[in-house]
Inverse folding.
């Protein structure tokens, strides 16, 4: 062993065994009686691990949810989240909403294809991780309300829907068409 003389307190930053030897001014005793050891096993520099049940969704929905599980060998101290339309990590101080590991976190407002769930997890040793999910697509904006147009000829009527939705689009099955079929010599009172 190589011995180093310390006159100040020693700071240990990794798990290991530390040996200390004391020698008096007359060099009495042997190393077997002058050496003590301490094994340090409680130093934790590992960040918590975050797992998303659903890690983003490219299907537009009014509400998006995912189960978030956080694990850490030394134990979890803090779990917080926030939904943002930014892929840039937010400051730790901006997290306010809390959750429980294994719980479901839901976003049910907003519109856009770039909603990220940001998680802040801190273990009991103070190691912190801030991670984001994949992008979730939300659409809580109604389509425009432009009325359909109708044109007619002697043999047909053509109705054209003018509604659009720049996010999730228009579901064709939700465009009901109502019309009255009139022959040229009839009026609606004749039917």
């Amino acid at each position: 062993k190589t011995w180093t003389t310390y006159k100040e307190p020693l700071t240990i930053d990794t798990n290991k065994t530390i040996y200390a030897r004391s020698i008096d001014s007359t060099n009495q005793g042997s190393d077997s009686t002058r050496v003590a050891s301490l094994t340090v096993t409680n130093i934790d520099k590992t960040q918590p691990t975050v797992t998303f049940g659903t890690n983003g969704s490219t299907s537009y929905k009014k509400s998006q949810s995912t189960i978030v599980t956080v694990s850490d060998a030394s134990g979890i101290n803090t779990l917080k989240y926030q939904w943002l339309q930014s892929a840039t990590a937010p400051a730790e101080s901006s997290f306010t909403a809390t959750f429980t590991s294994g719980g479901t976190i839901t976003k049910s407002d907003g519109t856009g294809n770039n909603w990220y769930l940001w998680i802040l997890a801190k273990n009991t040793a103070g190691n912190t991780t801030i991670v984001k999910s994949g992008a979730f697509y939300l659409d809580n904006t109604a389509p425009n309300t432009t009325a359909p147009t109708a044109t007619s000829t002697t043999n047909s009527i053509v109705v054209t829907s003018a509604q659009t939705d720049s996010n999730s689009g228009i579901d064709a099955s939700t465009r009901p068409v109502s019309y009255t079929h009139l022959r040229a010599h009839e009026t609606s009172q004749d039917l």
